[in-house]
Inverse folding.
């Protein structure tokens, strides 16, 4: 619960909150919780009430009216675009006569990217977590969920009584490599040979590779990338979350934090991978391709991302959700975190039991997957 000197307000648009106040709480490390990114999602019509994402951004103020904490929050009429699946919880509750939707979602829309969710300056994180529960109760909603929070926030949510959930992603970590060859030298011989073959085949099929940032990305490049995005969305999910205008606003508002890696066949763009640059990582988000090119997905999304991170001195590349195939390319399993507060005692008890077992399973899975690491073990021949 917020202390007596704090007051919580909810806002139906990120534009109602001053960018300077929001970013003073959010910091500069993770672009997906920046005012610029969240405003691009909303102003483009991607995350709106029409699409089932009604902004309810939380703002905590002290007695003097100073913004001390914020959280990106949405009232959700469904569970799509979240990447942490609670459909079974909703179905069970509805079958029992409850109403799971609407619910509150603390998240960066359509972005399975770990990062802070309790954005504070001047208050403790559990205070904001308690205030979000209070908001959920006052709105008479079933639950509030914080997805892809970082480890510190996960602990803060836990201390405030939220249920804790584990997931898995695959991240590449920079061990101070001087260049891509130095990274390859850390791998066992078989995996090193395989990656070199994949890169050779991708790079000798007549394509030109280009990396563009910020203002270097023009309308033609965004048009081409949006066509790739739509084709991939139709094939994988049957619908696209992001509008064409989102990508224009993204480039305008985030500037050089937008990194677009493209492949061109003659004058025609044939594939692209969209990344956002944070202070500690390059975050891979969307990919699409026209045509059939050997290993192009791995080249644009994984290997060129590694090269970029090495050149920029970044500690990590986070290449998005899912994908055990990433392990043999140097992206190892890492835990992701979410937290859930559920009002109904019976549903809360059932979910808590499920998550207790799921956490054990996830830990065991990550340990098993780590055995598949392509990196040379101590004493192993080069």
């Amino acid at each position: 619960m917020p202390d007596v000197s704090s007051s919580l307000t909810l806002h139906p648009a990120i534009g109602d909150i001053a960018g300077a106040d929001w970013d003073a709480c959010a910091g500069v490390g993770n672009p997906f919780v920046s005012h610029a990114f969240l405003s691009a999602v909303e102003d483009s019509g991607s995350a709106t009430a029409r699409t089932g994402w009604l902004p309810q951004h939380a703002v905590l103020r002290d007695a003097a009216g100073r913004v001390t904490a914020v959280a990106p929050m949405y009232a959700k009429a469904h569970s799509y675009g979240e990447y942490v699946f609670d459909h079974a919880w909703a179905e069970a509750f509805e079958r029992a006569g409850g109403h799971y939707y609407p619910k509150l979602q603390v998240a960066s829309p359509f972005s399975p990217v770990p990062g802070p969710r309790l954005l504070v300056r001047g208050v403790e994180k559990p205070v904001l977590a308690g205030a979000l529960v209070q908001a959920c109760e006052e709105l008479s909603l079933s639950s509030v969920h914080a997805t892809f929070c970082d480890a510190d926030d996960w602990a803060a949510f836990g201390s405030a009584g939220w249920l804790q959930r584990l997931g898995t992603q695959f991240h590449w970590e920079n061990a101070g490599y001087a260049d891509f060859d130095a990274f390859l030298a850390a791998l066992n011989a078989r995996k090193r040979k395989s990656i070199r073959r994949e890169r050779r085949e991708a790079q000798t099929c007549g394509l030109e590779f280009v990396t563009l940032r910020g203002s270097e990305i023009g309308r033609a490049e965004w048009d081409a990338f949006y066509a790739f995005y739509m084709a991939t969305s139709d094939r994988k999910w049957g619908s696209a979350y992001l509008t064409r205008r989102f990508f224009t606003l993204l480039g305008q508002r985030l500037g050089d934090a937008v990194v677009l890696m493209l492949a061109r066949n003659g004058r025609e763009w044939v594939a692209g991978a969209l990344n956002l640059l944070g202070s500690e990582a390059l975050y891979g988000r969307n990919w699409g391709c026209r045509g059939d090119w050997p290993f192009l997905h791995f080249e644009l999304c994984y290997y060129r991302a590694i090269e970029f991170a090495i050149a920029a001195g970044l500690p990590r590349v986070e290449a998005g959700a899912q994908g055990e195939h990433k392990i043999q390319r140097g992206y190892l399993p890492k835990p992701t975190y979410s937290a859930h507060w559920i009002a109904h005692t019976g549903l809360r008890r059932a979910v808590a039991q499920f998550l207790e077992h799921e956490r054990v399973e996830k830990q065991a899975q990550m340990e098993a997957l780590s055995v598949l690491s392509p990196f040379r073990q101590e004493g192993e021949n080069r």
Notes: The chain has two domains: 7-168+334-370, 175-314. The chain has a mean pLDDT of 95. Residues 275 and 284 are 4 Å apart (CA to CA). DSSP finds eleven helices and 15 strands in the chain.
